[in-house]
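Q: How would the structure tokens look for this protein?
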Amino acid sequence: MIYMEESQLQQLLEAKYKKGVQHGAKIMQQRMLLACENGTPLDIDGRAYFVRSDLQNLREIISNIGREGNKNEL
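A: Here is the predicted structure in token form.
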């Protein structure tokens, strides 16, 4: 049988917990990237959230500015 001190066991549990949290964060990052690339929503608490990249957001802003400029010329 393996014998461990209480402090050793606590350190092992903390290390495994941190590794689990890091793994979970990495999975969420991958999920968000896939949703962004595919244009599909993330379902969080029954609501749909769409993720856009910085470039997608910038294109939309520039497009909106262009449309507003055209309205002012008329």
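The chain has two helices and two strands.

The helical segments are 6-38, 54-73.

Upvote if useful.
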